[in-house]
Design goal:
With 342 residues, the protein is mainly α. The protein has helices at residues 2-19, 34-62, 65-89, 93-109, 117-120, 130-136, 155-167, 176-193, 195-204, 208-225, 258-273, 296-306, and strands at residues 144-147, 151-154.
Length: 342
């Protein structure tokens, strides 16, 4: 049986190598195997389109959603076993103990892991494998690598897959046919859960290979660093997304009318926040300027600090001059009826 498995894997790798007919003249830095990787990626994508995806769609239509969720919880509970082992190997004691508690609670109170009771108990689920453990201790990732049937990886992560295989409890299920049937069910169920996501990716990404590569490497860096350093940055999609910057304009530069568009909005917002009080009637005997209200000094200080025009108090200065960008009250008419709208 082991010999047959090895032959099948070797045959799949040989077919993938033959499929790598598309050559890349200038590989992307960090991806020296891009030519071969694209061939294997095309092989995996074709296999997914004509075999795995139709099976996943049929599985989704036949199996009700609550049952699929229970299947997902079952395999997730099994995965928590080697996730806990890798967390402990990384000396993340709290996370490792939390994962062990997740397995215990879901197995005992979740009917063998069919229900995720641990999440309801505020025990978060983590993600870890032996490739992340190697990266945690400084082992370099090596070139990006696309594996037949298994998808994106690196040289380091591909080495970790061997340890993950022997660390997965499904490997030791007897007879071996049941073990491989469980692996197949997990694969189909996972693919069914990703139907919508993959369809969106196919419609949005101009280059699926570059998009998947950048997303995979970014996620691995994030899991290894825990969100520190480069892992906290967003993925670099320069290879997959078009540029829409105008010629001769720096990215992020404002257009010609940007200042004119912002200033009135800021002035209007300030004017809306200013209290609207009726102007005091001017005295015919006192030609001097009226005393500014108590709220005028804070408004003037805020205007000087933010360089935003603030409307002047109604009534304006007594000399008849009107500073720029200030509100000019309408002239009062005497002897005419006035209608006030409420």
């Amino acid at each position: 049986m082991q010999t047959t498995r090895a032959k099948n894997v070797t045959l799949a790798i040989a077919v993938a190598m033959l499929a790598g007919c598309a050559s890349v003249q200038t590989p992307t830095p960090g991806d020296p195997l891009e030519s071969v990787n694209r061939g294997v990626f095309k092989f995996n994508d074709t296999l997914d389109t004509y075999a795995l995806k139709p099976v996943a769609k049929g599985y989704q239509q036949v199996v009700p959603e609550p049952v699929r969720r229970s299947v997902t919880n079952f395999f997730s509970n099994i995965g928590d076993v080697y996730i806990a082992a890798n967390e402990l190997l990384q000396l993340k004691i709290a996370d490792g103990v939390g994962d062990i508690m997740r397995v215990t609670i879901n197995t005992l109170f979740g009917v063998g892991g069919l229900f995720d009771v641990a999440t309801l108990a505020k025990l978060p689920k983590h993600a870890a494998d032996f490739g992340i453990t190697l990266g945690h201790y400084g082992v370099p990732s090596g070139p990006y690598l696309v594996l037949p049937l298994l998808g994106p990886s690196t040289v380091r992560d591909a080495t970790g897959l061997v340890v993950d295989y022997y660390g997965n409890p499904l490997t030791y299920v007897q007879p071996s046919s049941v073990s491989w049937a469980l692996y197949g069910l997990n694969l189909v169920n996972t693919r069914a859960n990703l139907l919508t996501t993959v369809d969106v990716l196919s419609g949005a990404a101009l280059d699926k290979y570059s998009f998947v590569r950048n997303a995979y490497l970014q996620r691995r860096r994030f899991l290894i660093t825990g969100g520190d350093g480069d892992g906290a940055q967003l993925p670099n999609y320069d290879q997959s997304l078009p540029k829409y910057d105008d010629d001769g304009a720096a990215p992020g530069a404002a257009g010609p009318g940007a200042g004119a568009a912002v200033t009135p909005g800021a002035t209007g917002a300030t004017g809306a926040a200013a209290p609207a009080s009726a102007p005091a009637p001017a005295s015919s005997a006192a030609p001097s300027a009226p005393e500014p209200a108590s709220g005028a000094q804070p408004a003037a200080a805020a205007s000087a600090a933010s360089a935003t025009a603030v409307p002047a108090p109604l009534g304006g200065p007594s000399d008849g001059t009107v500073p720029g960008q200030q509100y000019v009250p309408p002239p009062q008419r005497t002897g005419l009826p006035m209608i006030r709208l409420k």
